[in-house]
Design goal:
seven-stranded parallel beta sheet; three-stranded antiparallel beta sheet; alpha/beta; binds 2-phosphoglycolic acid; 10 strands; Rossmann fold; 7 helices
Length: 245
């Protein structure tokens, strides 16, 4: 197996700058890229940097298309704290992205299987995803693919791990029911050309060590990405703290 490399950026902000540079490189010459941006705390500095560059005219994101990675069941962009709500705030609205360039799970939809089919079709019709930007849960989850997940899984509704249900409260101003999610599957994610896995903070050091240096196992879903030829791991000093290197 190819030996996995990772980049340690120092602070989350420096990591954001580095990943923005790398995104530009990966998308050079691509006319209408399809990007899948995770919501969450980790990629926020990257999104701020992308918005800054777009506004400054140093990077043109005007032709980028976006597909949602995941959403809580029962919520959509009209709910403060939902995945779509955060991305609207940090990325889509500041960039002025029109609805025609976004496909995003509606966790309030009556037909959730239809949401999954629409999302998979949106990706296929655009020739696949150029880059998926991922965080990692402290339990090793990728998007809402929880421990025990099937590496070949497609978009689907899942029951969330108790850790995800409790950690997820941090995105909301009031207690919110987070029992289920709708998510791209690992099989869908693995079809992307580039997978950027981002982690920052000491609380991620242990799971990053397991994901990168422990056994490849469905117990740690992130480890199932290790053999992907387009995987790049971006860490700050704190998240890299337990790696043997
Ligand atoms: P975080 O979430 O970036 O807010 O830590 C990561 C995740 O749960 O995937």
């Amino acid at each position: 197996m190819r030996s996995l490399r990772w980049t340690v950026g120092g602070t989350p902000e420096i990591m954001g700058l580095q990943v923005a540079d790398r995104l530009r490189q990966c998308l050079e010459g691509v006319k209408a890229p399809l990007i899948c941006p995770a919501s969450g705390t980790t990629p926020a500095p990257l999104y701020h940097e992308l918005v800054r560059r777009h506004r400054a005219g140093t990077m043109d994101l005007g032709a980028w298309n976006f597909v949602g990675l995941d959403e809580w069941i029962g919520l959509n962009g009209s709910d403060e704290g939902s995945c779509r709500w955060w991305l609207d705030k940090d990325l889509f609205r500041p960039l002025g992205v029109g609805e025609d360039r976004i496909c995003f799970f509606d966790g309030r939809a009556a037909d959730l299987a239809g949401e999954c089919a629409t999302t998979e079709r949106f990706i296929a019709e655009r020739g696949g995803m150029n880059v998926v930007i991922l965080g990692i849960g402290t339990n090793g989850h990728i998007a809402m693919n929880e421990p025990g997940t099937d590496v070949a899984a497609r978009s689907r509704v899942v029951t969330l791990h108790p850790t995800t249900q409790s950690v997820g409260q941090k995105y909301f101003t009031r207690q919110t029911v987070l029992e289920k999610g709708i998510t791209l599957g690992l099989g869908t994610i693995r079809e992307a050309r580039h997978i950027f896995l981002l982690a920052t903070g000491e609380h991620k050091a242990s799971i990053i060590q397991q994901a990168l240096e422990g056994p490849v196992s469905a117990d740690v879903p992130a480890s199932l990405l290790r053999d992907h030829p387009g995987l790049e791991v971006w860490l700050d000093e704190a998240a890299a703290g337990k790696l043997g290197g």
